[in-house]
Amino acid sequence: MTTPQAGARETVLGRVRDALALAPVPEITIPRAYRTGRTLPDDERLALLTRRLVDYKARVHTCTAERTADVVADVLRELNARRTGVPDGLDEEWLGRYDGEVQQDSADIPAPGLDALDAVVTASAVSCAETGTIFLDGSPGQGRRALSLVPDVHVCVVDLSTVEAGVPEAVARLVPERPTTLISGPSATSDIELERVEGVHGPRTLVVVIRTDV
Q1: Strand ranges for 129-190 from DSSP E
Q2: Closest Cα partner for 167 from 130, 120, 125?
Q3: CA-CA 20 to 30 A from 142: which of 17, 20, 99, 182?
Q4: pLDDT (tens digit per residue) in 122-144
Q5: Does 30 reside within a domain?
Q6: Which of 103, 84, 111 is nearest to 207 (CA)?
Q7: Residue 76: which CATH number?
Q8: Buried b (16+ CB within 10 A) or exposed e, 166-201
Q9: Which residues contact 192 (CB under 8 A, 6 or more apart)?
Q10: Which portions of the chain are predicted below pLDDT 50?
Q11: What region holds the LUD domain (predicted)?
């Protein structure tokens, strides 16, 4: 049995369909006049990205490529991370000085199982200095999204050569078809009383290791 409400709905939708069928669909050109081509010297990009990350309450360490393993090991030791997850394809040398347990991630490990990790170490695809945003796209060394969201500590290694000054320049380096995760500081939110709560949607602690000579 058709109710009056359902009958009226079908009448309205029918008229919309008829109108769309009769009316020509104009070709619309959407202007994409984004600002592009912005560049900054290495030292300015490094300083700007560091300021933004610190504003978001992330911890930042700067090092040369040859000291990556030392810095990563020091960070994990300081955070008392005894069991650390790594994605497939991560440079093994980065954990070469770490004396804890390293767990290689795989799709066979359910997302809740990742909560047993004390930390995770990943690489990154690109970063935006202007917004302090780090982009992960699931490439080798970055892993699946759950790996960087479930553990309470995320240590992310960023090569300064992958840091762009602005958003358009950073986005232009991404592959649209890849699953992109945007990270701007540790996970945090606030309730109606403006009480800040960390670790709700992702890691409570974000540590960024910026390699300056890559």
Answers
A1: 133-136, 153-159, 163-164, 181-183, 188-190
A2: 130
A3: 99
A4: 999 999 999 999 999 999 999 99
A5: no
A6: 84
A7: 3.40.50.10420
A8: bebbbbeeeeeeeebbebbbbbbeeeeeeeeebeee
A9: none
A10: none
A11: 52-210
